[in-house]
Structures are given as C-alpha cells and as structure tokens.
Write the structure tokens for this entry.
Amino acid sequence: MSNLPKSIILRTKWLGEIPLNWNVKKIKYFTSSKNNKSINGDEELLSVSEYKGVVPRSQLTEDDDGLSRAESLVGYLKVEKGYLVANIMLMWKKGLGVSRHKGIVSPAYSVFSFLDSNPFYFDYLFRTNLYITEFRKHSTGIIDSRLRLYDDKFKALYTHFPPIEEQNLIVKYLDKKLQPINQIIENIDKKVELLKKQRNSLINEVFSRGLNPNVEMKDSKIEWLGKIPSHWNVSKLKYIADANQENLTNSTDSNFELDYIEISDVNEIGLIKTPTKYLVLLLCALHIFFLLELKSCYVNTFFLPVTNSVINDSLYSLKSFDFFISTSIV
C-alpha cells in the first residue's frame, strides 16, 4: 500500500500488506443502501444469524440471533439475492451476511446492494475475525449489549478490494474448499440438536415423575403441571424463596469495579460465562430483572442511566446459589 496517500495508509494499517494489483476502497464507494419496503409482508422472512449468515427464519432455532416476533411484516425491508444484510446491533458479533435468498428482513436491519463487485467475496471477507474486530472498534456503546455500528461508520471503513476477476476466483475457490467442511459441521449440528432433545427429555422426565418410573401419580390440580407423584406437594415460589434486595448504596464510588452479568451471559442450560468487569460509572443502559435468592457479582435491574443517586435502585448483588430471572425473556 506504499503507493497510497499517507492519510489512507494510516487508516488502513489494520488491513496489513496486500498484493500489488489489489486496491483498498471505502465501502460506501461500492455499496448502495436499499430501503424498499414490503407492501403486504407476504415475502419469505429472512434473519441474520451469527453462525449461518442470512437464512430463512424457518431454518433458525430459538438459540439463533435476530428472530422476529412481529405480528405484521408489512413495511419490512425487501432483500434480493446478493444483498448485504446487517444487524447494526450485532455486527461486532458476525451479525451480517450476504443473502442467497429473496425475501424481507426487519426494518431494524440495514440492507445494501453491491456495485461492480462480487457480493459473496464480501460475504466471506466481512465475516472474518479481522473485519469483525474492526467493526467492534468502530461500534458505539457503553457495554457489549449496547454496541451499534451505524451505516455512516460502516460505509466509511476501507476494505480489501482486488480486481473483480480475482474476487470471482476467490469465491469459487472458497465455495469448493468449504463445501465438505460445511457438510461436516451441519452433520455435527444435527447430532448436537438430537443430544439437546435427549437432554431436555431426561430433565423433563425426572422433574415430572422423579427417579421412579413406576411411581403412583396424582392430579396436581394445577392445569399446566398435570399429574405429579402422589408423595409430592406443590408450592408457590414466594413460599420457598426470598427476594434478594441487597444492592449498592448511594455513596458507592463511581470508580468502584464490579463483575457484571446480563441475562445474555447465561446460556440455554443455565451456565454463566465469566462476568465482565466494569466501573460503576460506565454502567448506564440496563435491563429489567427480578432477583431471587451464583458468585459475588452484580446484576442489572432496569433501564436507567446510572448516577450515584440511583445506583442503589439499579444493581443487585448476587451470591452463591442465587437465582435470577429476566422478566422480558422468561
């Protein structure tokens, strides 16, 4: 890139060295924002998955990203094959991809067409760790769950731009080499899904009948619970758990460092990833949580800008064996 102006070299240092016949180009010079909206919402609903890119929503599970629960799809953005779809809230987490399907996506997404370039070259490129790291760097937000990469920031980024003939060859090469690998991954995913079903079936069986498959059953008199073992009782949660109201005080130093957990940090089997360390001063966009009596750390309770005067209302302390619930996800 030594033949480029110094100002561009400084802004593209993260790209590293490139072949002599390649160029670097801002994304805005070979993409065009699209805002064509669905009139009746009858088109196939697409979604962006961190793992699969842009796929029909029907192919996603509840564990995938970006599932729409809207009652009406009127006004959703139209997507053609070869369009780039980006979830601005998750671009730092591979929440973007080039669609191989025609359909519609949430109006919360950004949609782009490509000019004089191979869209699927950029599908591979933009989902590499190098670019995901750069997307995160230019995203705006206090904490991970609030990061946004807005269109103007995205389109101002420079990117590798080889000649179109070479873009085509790269796509052809990767498609051929990755096809057998993707097939293996798909087979493994199917086995994982089967194991998840077996796991859930085992848990459901134990918690509905206990360890004795031949146990005598009785009516729980609670419609959704159905029958339970005759020697079991039922109880309201309020009689067996106490609400934990321990929280930070108004006098908490704004530079106090704490381990912070969001409900997104809890996976589908209830395991919590390592908490992220934050200063109280930096915690400002929060969710709604109720906390019942895992580690000594703090969990957010509702959407509120944090200042010392409201710290005590916004962060609850967690201890070993505490159980917490997100009212918006349960």
